[in-house]
Amino acid sequence: MEALEDYARTEKLEVVTFEKKQRKDDVAAEYRERFRGEEGVLFIGKAQEKVSVFRTQRRNNPKTGASYAWLYRSTAMVNQYYIYAIDRDFGPFFLKFCSYFPYNAKLCINGHEYAKRQLERRGIAYEALDNGVLTCEQPAILQKICDELSAQRIDALFRKWLRRVPHPFKAKDRAAGIRYQLSILQAEFSLTQVLDRPVTGRIFFEEVIRENLDIGRPDQVQLIFQRRIMRKGPKATPGRFRTRVITEGVYPSLHVDYKSTRIKQYHKEGRALRTETTINNCRDFDIGKRLHNLPALREVGFRANRRLLDVQRISHDCFIGEDGFHSIQRPHVVAQQRASALRFEDERVQTLLHALVLFRLLPNGFSNRDLRQRLEPLRGRHTTPGSVTYDLRRLRLHGLIERLPGTHRYHVTKRGLRFALFFTRAYDRLFRPALATVLPDQAHTDSALRASFHKLEVEITSWVEQAKLAS
What we know:
- The protein is of the alpha+beta class and 471 residues long.
- It has four domains: 1-109 and 150-180, no CATH class; 183-315, 4-Layer Sandwich (S-adenosylmethionine decarboxylase), CATH 3.60.90; 329-437, Winged helix-like DNA-binding domain superfamily/Winged helix DNA-binding domain (Arc Repressor Mutant, subunit A, Orthogonal Bundle); 439-471, no CATH class.
- The protein contains 15 helices and 16 strands.
- The strands form five sheets. The chain has a five-stranded mixed beta sheet, with helices on both faces. The chain has a five-stranded antiparallel beta sheet with strand order 8-12-11-10-9, with helices on one face.
- The longest helix has 25 residues, at 414-438.
- The protein starts with a helix and ends in a 5-residue tail after the last helix.
């Protein structure tokens, strides 16, 4: 690889020796920030890595005794050379060459970067999401660009840069037909669903994880990949079938395994639900490794993403629940009429909802007077017709009651009954008795809940003291 060293000196490129456990992408990011050209080589990296190689040994023919050379597969720690560059069409990428026979090469590209470059060249505005796209002025064209990333374009990129950097094979070797042929070592296919309410999306994803911990079972995995899984016998499907939840910092991710293939699902950048299938062995799906098989592999990857979402289940929709809660808790405007909020903790609201539960059973509905007579014993004070009219208007605009046509009577809606039942039962059966138990000035010292709170307080105090923090 002396030619690469000479190339670096001629082009005034730095040769960076990667340190052990150093993230190469972080080093490359620093060089990309300083690069100002449209395309070109950023730097050349060098690292010793353990790789699969071929070695030779002398063997003897048992009949004639003549010796001959024999090739066998082995492993070795050899220098690997990385060429980090930026292409006009593909954006950042790197080429990796092994300095030992058979001089393997690797091309690593990012399809998202390719798509962003194409958008920029066409003058289409977009907003990035890490290495992906958050918003795009013309999403249909973006999808067309992604579909056009073909095996032919990738191969053309590889040939282009082999002509620009020193080739591992000499001219006479290439003339003899010794050439690189691209195959698929690893392919990642992602589906990014951008959420318009990121915080709610995080809650939704945590519910997905909680209720789909069995997604890695064989009966579920074979639905995702549409591959029959045999657990026993000579045709048993290799690999471990499991679901893993991995947490980095405060961000959890869901992992599903099938043979050498992995599906990862996580909340990306706090803005989107990302589902990505990484295929490490095309043979898992009876597909060849040559680059021309990319369309078939792409279909497997994207279908797996979609099927995972189809197989996943969740017992409730937190988007709907949160919307419903806030629709009551916040002021509401209907046909330019503003109704004040129905606060959950407001005693006046709780008495109204208690009354609605009773009035739901009345076939002819209820009137202002009926509601006033029910509210007075609940509130323990006199209630005027004007204040009840105000309450009826709030309930009607929030959709909890509706006026019967041609009358001054009202009927409780299905929405109204369900809100009334949930709000009143949660308040009466959960918040009031629980707070009465755990508040420090209450008498129920033998409560298990109170004892748990006391233990929590002791542990927090102990932790603060050990950390030498002020209380």
